[in-house]
Amino acid sequence: SKTWIAERLAPWDLDLAPGDLAHAHYASGKGRTLGTDLGVVLAVLEGGRVRIRFQDSVMQTIPMGWVEQVIRLQPGDRVMSCFKVNDGRGAKSLKTDLGSVLQVSAEEVHVVFDDNVEQNVPKTWVAQRTRTWDLAVEIGSVADVHFEVGDDGRRSTSTDIGIVVTNCVEGRVAVQFQDTIQQTVPLGWIARLREWGPGDRVQAHFKTGGGDKSNDTDVATVLAASLLEAELYFDDGIQQCVSKAWVTERIRNWGAEVPELAVGDVVVAHFKRPGNHCRSVQTDRGIILSMLPKGQVSIMFQDDVTQVIPKGWIESMATRWSGQREKLAQDEDSAAASGADAASKARPRPVSTAQPALGSPECVICMDAKPNGVIVHGETCHQSTCFACAKRLHRNGDTCPICREPIETVCRLHGE
Predict the structure, then answer these.
(1) I want to staple 312 with a disulfide (CB 3.0 to 4.6 A). Which of 29, 85, 199, 390 is the partner?
(2) How would you write the chain as a 3-class SS string?
């Protein structure tokens, strides 16, 4: 009877499948053993039982609750495993050694040990998994990778920055290191990924006068990245395409700090200093005029100077104009609907045509005056700036800050 169960000592929360390694108790003459042994799961049976082959090749069908730990090996895992002595032709070794898993079958695992010796060994020879492979590696990934050293190609103690240039094939990937040397190494030799993208601020080597890699690094903003190269804009105004392996550190995750940008947003950003186009130390407010390829934006600053800068130079968002514009449009529609209802119930009255189709509490350029300027382009117009800023845009040959259409003429809103 269920009522005879006085207490649950341990909930069952393990996921078992054929081929898994399991640390499990086994049946002896006196029932369940106190200690556990390592075995391979052969089958998961009905009635809460599992069939396991232990290290001594003895097979037993035991309750699932006797399994204490499950290890599901996969390519890339780092393991401590016994090995075959006498160049792989002998018996099981007495000691274990570190290795990386290349491939896994039902009862065997293909391991390359750190001395670059490859062997197929029984799964039960794996004494411990020291690191579970959990990296999403793809072509173009930048990573810290161990490399082959010495005549025997053993695994290095230290790592170097490299670029993954092939997909994983039989537990191995090809990596191109900083010195342009390419090696095919086990997946488990990748220690960690270096993640950065357009807009991020990074520390990187640069090309010297002869095109060689510099000894020192400098701060730069990532503009774009290809399979092997990254296009960087250094703070001294120099723009270069360098090997992705030359990027040593990400110092600012721009995408996590700054929300998605849109035309019309007001931002706080660094600007290009006159003459050398270096990145300024101070910042200024400006309005985004357009989003450009290769991680750049066109911004009009408060002094009416328009510059194309890396988007990573934007420090923060001051006003999200795109969201405000949608709210104003909804308010305009609600007001128009209310006006129509009122007109049907009351006597006819003059309706002002001076109200814009889309308004704003303040000019999106100077953020100060009323938006009494109307920008005309073809059969449509936009009202988002003051008359003075509208005239300045027209005079400078700029486009409409809302839709980017060429400006034909500007006028002042009647009554303003």
Answers:
(1) 199
(2) CHHHCCCCCCCCCCCCCCCCEEEECCEECCEECCCCEEEEEEEEECCCEEEEEECCCCEEEEEHHHEEEEECCCCCCEEEECCECCCCCCCECCCCEEEEEEEECCCEEEEEECCCCEEEEEHHHEEEEEECCCCCCCCCCEEEECCEECCCCEECCCCEEEEECCCCECCEEEEEECCCCEEEEEHHHEEEECCCCCCCEEEECCECCCCCECCCCEEEEEEEECCCEEEEEECCCCEEEEEHHHEEEEEECHHHHCCCCCCCCEEEECCECCCCCCECCCCEEEEEEEEECCCEEEEEECCCCEEEEEHHHEEEEEECHHHHHHHHHHHHHHHHHHHHHHHHHCCCCCCCCCCCCCCCCCCCCCCCCCCCEEEEECCEEEEEECHHHHHHHHHCCCECCCCCCECCEEEECCCC
